[in-house]
Amino acid sequence: METPEEKYKNLSYLFNCYLHQDWTIEGENLSEVFDSSQALQNLSGGIQREAETLLAEEYDNQFLDDIFFGQWGAGYEPEADGLDDWQHVLKEIVRYCDRYTEVE
């Protein structure tokens, strides 16, 4: 059975490399993190698909919290962007990625 890190390798990369404990060095909010990183823009298709898959699985916020914080070491919190929970964060990630996948 695949671990979340294996199954969602692009999202794991996003959280490990950009939404880490000091994530604000990458941008003041999630939109700025995406806008300032060509690497994330290049991975936007994979990130978007994986975020949509997680949303479709309908995991509760605690399960997602366990993955993002417990396994992937995230420092980003939904409240940083005025979002209620991880489902809203994933929807925003899909929306941001959509801006870059349309350009491809």
Compact summary:
By secondary structure, the protein is mainly alpha-helical. The chain has helices spanning 4-7, 9-17, 30-35, 38-42, 44-57, 61-71, 86-101.
Written account of the structure:
- The chain is an all-alpha fold and 104 residues long.
- The chain is built from seven helices and no strands.
- α2 crosses α5 and α5 runs antiparallel to α7.
- The longest helix has 16 residues.
- The protein is globular and about 35 Å long.
- It starts with a helix and ends with a helix.
- 31% of the residues are buried.
- The model has no long low-confidence stretch (mean pLDDT 91).
Give the distance, in angstroms, between the N- and C-terminal Cα atoms.
Answer: 32 Å
Helix content class: 55-70%
In total, the number of strands is 0
Mind summarizing the main beta sheet?
A: none
Report the structural category.
Answer: mainly alpha
Count of helical stretches: 7
Average per-residue pLDDT, rounded, comes to 91
CA radius of gyration = 12 Å
Elements, N to C (H/E): HHHHHHH
Shape: globular
Residue windows where pLDDT falls under 50 for at least 5 positions: none
Strand coverage percent: under 5%
What features would you highlight for this structure?
single chain, 104 residues, mainly alpha, globular, Contact-dependent growth inhibition system immunity protein, CdiI_2
Question: What order do the helices and strands come in, and which of them pair?
Answer:
Layout lengths: L3 H4 L1 H9 L12 H6 L2 H5 L1 H14 L3 H11 L14 H16 L3
Helix pairs in contact: 2-5, 5-7
